[in-house]
Amino acid sequence: MYKITVIPGDGIGQEVMQPTIDILETLNSKFEFIPKEAGKECYQKYDTNLPEETIVQCRESDSTLFGAVTSIPQQKSAIVTLRKELDLYVNQRPIHSYTNPDIDFTIIRENSEGLYSHIEESTGDEAIAIRKITYKASERIINYAFNYALKTEKSKVTASHKANVLPVTDGIFKNTFYKVASNYPTIKSNDYYIDAMAMYLITNPAQFDIIVTTNLFGDILSDEGGGLVGTLGLIPSANIGDKTGLFEPVHGSAPDIAGLNKANPIAMILSSCLMLEYLGLYDDAKRIQNAVEETISESKVKTPDMGGHNNTQDVANNILHRL
Fold first, then answer.
1. Disulfide check for 39: which of 9, 165, 247, 253 has CB 3.0–4.6 Å away?
2. What is the pLDDT of residues 99-135, one digit of tens each?
3. What's this model's pTM, rounded to 2 decimal places?
4. Would you say 145 and 210 are in contact if contact means Cβ atoms under 8 Å apart?
5. How far is residue 184's CA from residue 177's CA, in Å, rounded to a whole number?
6. Cα–Cα distance between 132 and 54 in angstroms, integer?
């Protein structure tokens, strides 16, 4: 029996989570789903957007499904806090187009430091944010990227950085990349500055298999990836550490459409597939992925972000029907 913490959050997080649980329950009776709170509504109830009880339950679970939360001024990000508390140093985001075979790569982003380290201070008219990059964190994320390339039979890993402008911090990342790459002689390696990388994702995406980069750069490239496939509603992500994992859609809480039953549930559903793979349930993951792909390519059932007129539950029901 796998213990799965379920954090719907707020906004459309709640709307896309329930269809995902429904799909998982049709496949496998090995799950115990444990609901916990985080986000804006949680803050209104408990004066915190991430109760300690939620953190403890995530730590004790085999994995966590996370919907989306709305940011709250003067409160640390709930998802960033969970990543740090659970030491989820890998953020893995597959970018796959169902219409363009040239777009099929994975962004692996260092998840524990960089500009998301929450080291900021303000003095008078000056504010400073510290960008923390370490050899240890760089080495473990780059090793993960090369091992993932071997596991998925990919031929190349590309690093992205800005070492020409940030020679100390990104110098660490670039130098560590090539040091680690020397241990994987069967995998090709190269690097691009982050601005060039952003351009090449648009002009020549077929050249990429695995992209490894630092925290902020990976976050930005992931949203660009959503643009490449047409919508963030199709992009899942995994946050992985040595002891547990947390799986979430790339999209946010989208309060402008919350409660309207317009949200695309596919990113959340595909995030559950990444969870199944993490747990070793590869056949179940593949079944869901196939049903999603059939829904996208064969049916006319699409949410507005995909150019259709159907609602969240329509899409989920189509996937369930194909399962």
1. 9
2. 999 999 999 999 999 998 888 999 889 999 999 999 9
3. 0.91
4. yes
5. 11
6. 27
